[in-house]
């Protein structure tokens, strides 16, 4: 029997697309399936960072879709800030932040709804796994994360563990109060920079009994050409994060470690050359 979850009426979901159509997004597919077990219709902002439009205006029974095409690929930070602005206009109380490559179980909306009604914290997050490794939440270290073996559902300090972007449910008023996402970080370090802002006034979040699968971009190099561009951006953003957010970040170690992984993956010295050039330019 279908059930009505009252709390979803206060939610604006936001999914960020890049070169993947909405209907082929694993996130959209799995959440659409989860909504079929309810009588809910959820508002969603589809923020499309692709060069060409990845949504053709299809209508879905479970979704009320708002669409923004950003062919300049301004990044997820701008997308999530745009979602906050829309949520305020629509009178929503919660933002559900998503990327395109997470797979959510059928009890997703029930689980978030129960946590929202408990009201223990204003930031909720699932457990995300990639290649059988728990990637979120993780143990934060300066400029990088430490993978945990496991984590139990419950309330945690953001000074000890933190979530990645996809799957975060956050109260709109607290998102806005902390300044939202820092658009200087379009992709890499966007979650670090946001949590750094958020935890200045709200130090805890809740890990939900919700297990999801996630395609983590740091573990998926893609083509060599795209990896070159991605790594160049990573180098620049690492230096920016160290300079503007966390001076304890060991940019040299982080960049060389990423370069070595990519070098081994592609069997190419290009990434070490890119790393050395960026490190010399940053001096």
From TrEMBL:
Signal peptide location: none
InterPro entries for this protein: Glyco_trans_2-like, Nucleotide-diphossugar_trans
Domain Glycosyltransferase 2-like per the UniProt entry, residue ranges: 15-132
Superkingdom assignment: Bacteria
Gene Ontology MF terms: transferase activity
Annotated transmembrane regions: none
The UniProt record lists the keyword Hydrolase: no
One Pfam family linked to the record: Glycos_transf_2
Record keywords: Transferase
Name of protein: Glycosyl transferase, group 2 family protein
Originating organism: Fulvivirga imtechensis AK7
Native organism taxonomy: Bacteria, Pseudomonadati, Bacteroidota, Cytophagia, Cytophagales
